Each structure stands twice: as structure tokens, then as C-alpha cells.
Amino acid sequence: MQPDPSLPAPPVPDLLQDRLQQVAAREAALGLTTGFLTALLARIDETMLPRVVTLEVEGHRLARVELARRALVALDWHGHHWPSASATTARAAAPELAALLRALARSLPEGTPLSWHSTPATIRPSATQCTAALLKAALAPPRGPGLQPLLDRLRPIAIASARQTSTGPQHQDPASPWSAVLEATLAQAHPGTHKDTTLGSTPPSRACLRLLPLTADHMLALISAPDQQEALILSPDVARRLELDWQSLPL
Fold this sequence. Notes:
The chain is of the alpha+beta class. It is built from seven helices and eleven strands. The protein has helices at residues 14-29, 36-46, 90-107, 132-139, 148-154, 179-188, 236-247; strands spanning 51-57, 60-68, 71-77, 80-82, 114-120, 130-131, 160-165, 168-171, 208-215, 218-225, 228-234. A hairpin with a 2-residue loop joins strand 10 and strand 11. The chain is elongated and about 65 Å long. The model is unreliable at 23-34 and 192-205 (pLDDT under 50).
């Protein structure tokens, strides 16, 4: 199959890295990768010596957290105390803590800066204390059917597509004039880590979507997950439908 000379020339692959970097910089500038739960997980993971951390909003104490040995030992928030007396192990206590933290995150006033105050303390280790990794796993939603049903719907209506395999990119149409763009995109991609960029508002998932405009009639879609990566060239209409469908995708 020969490339259609009527199609616009694909963008130079080197430009893709610049566009991906611009998107990442814009996300960082907007603070989309931070948030209450992200900040809390980071504090847990970096705290070895026992400390009491108080979360304040406009000078009013909202919650009190006890940290030690890179784990969350206790939480007090508006009369709610964790761990409960019924929990005996960290794995059993983690879902209860995750539910309490989700409720706390939802209660935070939007756009109001949070203050963290940390002081040394004497804290006894507990059998129920949760590490950041265990808490992050508890916050993650149950896995749905994955990306495959979505990709099966997209490939037939994509202008071009390629997926990463153990032996390299596998193209839907190797002779497509977009092959170099797709290969360059997959080479620069990283496995997805979350479905949404704000951990504080949406529990972490295992896939991410990026849409980049290439021309007036062509959008580049990059779908990444730890176990699969796919790049597709889509029409603007298909890209918009994909963006809407992604918000409700049960990953």
C-alpha cells in the first residue's frame, strides 16, 4: 500500500517529544499531580522518626495524623478515629483508613490552601499501621475489564494505530504515512500510573490518556498502562468521543 500523497505530511517525530514535555510542564504548573492524598502519601513515605502532623485550613485544625517508620499509625478527624478496635492487622485496617481519607479529601474546601505542621512525638508502633504502598493499594478502585474493549472499538475507526510489543511496535498498517510518528510516540512513552491526574479527587488507576493535536484533521492519542501502550491517529470527532468515554471507563 502506497502512502496517499493527498494527506498532509506527518509532523517530524522530533516535535513529539517537545509536545509531550509541554503537556507535562503544563500539568505540573497547574498542580495537577499534587493534592491532599498525594501529599499525605509522600509524607508517610518520607517520615522515619515518629512525628505528629496536623492539617490546618485557614488556621483551624482539621485532622491529626501520627506517622512513624514510614507508616501511618493513627488518624483523628472530626470525631473519627483510626484504627478502630476491630482492626487487628494493617491489611485489614487499610480499607477502613482509605474510606476515611476519601471522605476527608471530599470535605476539603476547594481552592483553599492547606497547612501541614509537623512536630516530633513519642508514638508506639502498631500492628495496624499502614505504609504508603499499602494505603495507595487500598485507595485504588477495583480493576475493570481493562483497555482491550476500548482499543477494539478504536482500531477500526482510527486513521492509523500501533501498539508496543516485546519485539517492537506492531502497526495496524505498516505502510501508513503515520508509522514514523506512531513509533516515535511509543518510543517516548512511559507506562501509565493513573487514570486521572489528581489523586486527591480520583483514586489512582493504572492507565492514562493523552491527546495531542497534530493538524486540523488529525489528533494523536497515546494510551498507556503498565502492561500495554498504544498510539493512534484519530479524527477530531473520534478523539472528542474518546475523551468523554475515558472519564467513565472502569479501569
